[in-house]
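Reviewer 2 asked us to include a model.

Predict the structure of this chain.
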Amino acid sequence: MRLFSLISALLAMVAAPLAAQIALPRVGVPDVGSVVDQIDDRLDRTTREIERETQRLANDRLRRIDRLVRRNRDAIEFDANGAPARKGELLVMDASQSALEIAGERGFTVLSRESVEGLDLQLVRLSVPEGMKLAEAQKQLEAIVPDAVVSADTLHFQAGGADAANLVLAADAPNSIGAPVGMIDGATGSSVKVAEQRGFAKGAPYPSNHGSAVASLLAYAGAGTIRVADVYGTDKAGGNALAMAKGLGWLVTRGSKVVTISLVGPRNPVLGRAIASAQRKGVVIVAAVGNDGPASPPSFPASYEGVVAVTAVDGKRRALIEAGRALHLDYAAPGADIYGRNAKGRRMRLRGTSFATPLVAARAAQAIGQGSDWRSALDREAEDLGKKGHDDVYGRGLVCGRCDGR
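Predicted model (structure tokens):
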């Protein structure tokens, strides 16, 4: 959008001198070629600036992850794919008892057998052999149990930031009551009213600004009953795939028809299978594409098949330059120049795809609550931005375009 605005402004500069050439002497009037050269130069500079910013975002992501692992060596380490994960543990699905016994002989100890409620999902948690790095252990276990699905318990990160202001947000005013909505995030503060919260991490539920802001936007945009699965608490390795799968299962059993996830991470087979199971039960999953820029790897869970992937725009309806990417894109919604509540109930200025996502989820919940097809309802509301029709910047269009949380 910034490029389009720049082009329009520069073309206007060209038009004025050309019209004036009839009455004005040629002295001081630039010829068309020189003005076009100036436009090309400005566009080249703008393109280079965008490329630099894109690369900076990608580099910042790698630095943040590296810093996180280095500061929490007792709880987090890199898996075989270079993603941060819970230290010393692997998750295994579809392994036979004989295969697990062989793994046990090689030093992999069963920590627990997990059955995720509501999702028909079973798995085994294994500890890695003493003194072995997680990445190496993952490779070895994959060779020992080739017919099973092995993964690390990879971490996911919240996809937005906020600045608090000393003003209380006005009362929420939803247009209508929608279907029950579940939220996988941090817990909310007492000032943000939700029906129920449950923890799936050490110290959870524990109030967070991010979770509070997401919940306040859900209520503002017209979601029905809101339940929160806190997958962070005070756990250094919070936001892991197993916690998210368990949280999703609980939300499904509690009747959530839409689940919003403003978290991003790598592809994980446990979480992927949990999401697919929830979708088969008719639950709509809505997820953020993240804020690591277009050069970042595709974000999950937004990239899982059938998940409604959401990006964000600012108050001028320009795509956020830091918006990440997914393997597909469904909708855009306001994600900057908007407001929500923090854990203490104070007004917050928000920015990030985290905060666009609950707006789309609430709109889907409204449609379901009214007995409508949620996809058709969102498509009717969506305002086409950018290229005509579906595109890779705004998806199917802008939803909740007048929502700002004020």
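Residues 67 and 233 are 20 Å apart (CA to CA). Residues 1-40, 164-175 have pLDDT under 50 and may be disordered. We have added this to the supplementary material.
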